[in-house]
Amino acid sequence: MINFNADKTLNAAATFWFLVAVLGQWIFVIYIAAFYGSAAVGGNFEKWNKVLPNGYVDGDPIYNLALATHLSLAFTMHFFGPLQLIPQLRSYAPTFHRWNGRIYIATAFIISLAGLYLTWTKVPFGGDRINITINAIAIMVCAAMAYRYARAYNFKAHRRWAIRLFLVVAGVWFFRIGLMFWLAVNKGPVGFDMQSFQGPFLTFLGLAQTFLPLAVLELYFRAQDSSISIAKWFVSIIIFLFTIMMGIGIFAASMAMWIPRI
């Protein structure tokens, strides 16, 4: 009975995290479509510069195309990505799952390459090229591994790499909600300068956007494979706490950045 309750709690914690994450990502998707999409449809690309320090650049069509590709694919990744992780959809619509997965993996490579081009041709706000590059490489590695294990019909390994891909693809999203969580709990910037957008906290957050979600996921996988109830309870608590922090960040980001621009 104890083992059953521990397993049930661990599954509940993971489900709770997934639902909150999907809600937050779909709010982000609506924002991308409403702000960037509407500006593009209306031909008002300069509007992007109200949000992006290195947004639309007059006279640089290659850069602008890369940016438009990156934004449009971000919409695709954050909207369709969560659908890959719904087990009922995998069971009842396997054809959709396979084709959506192929598109998702191909998109992951394209969005990473576009992101690298944008990062290394224009200095990003705060100059954090290294952490952005690390995230892009992590996306491509996870995408390649997910594809490899799917082709090998090793679906347990494929599923785990697909979840890792889902997390690292959301690196920019994690950065935003992590920043807004930090600003909300501290009632202002602590550990960095808002004008230059540099400081030790942002350096930490730049690494955390990729590695912190992966670390929590690895704890979840180990607890899932373990027969020790206390390990399952411990990881469940970590996931619940991580979800609450994520929820605060999502709410703060939605109210301060996304919803006002929709």
TrEMBL record:
Membrane-crossing segments per the record: 12-41, 61-80, 101-120, 132-150, 162-185, 197-221, 233-259
Pfam families reported in the protein's UniProt record: DUF2306
Domain of life: Bacteria
InterPro entries: DUF2306_membrane (IPR018750)
Entry keyword set: Membrane, Transmembrane, Transmembrane helix
Protein name: DUF2306 domain-containing protein
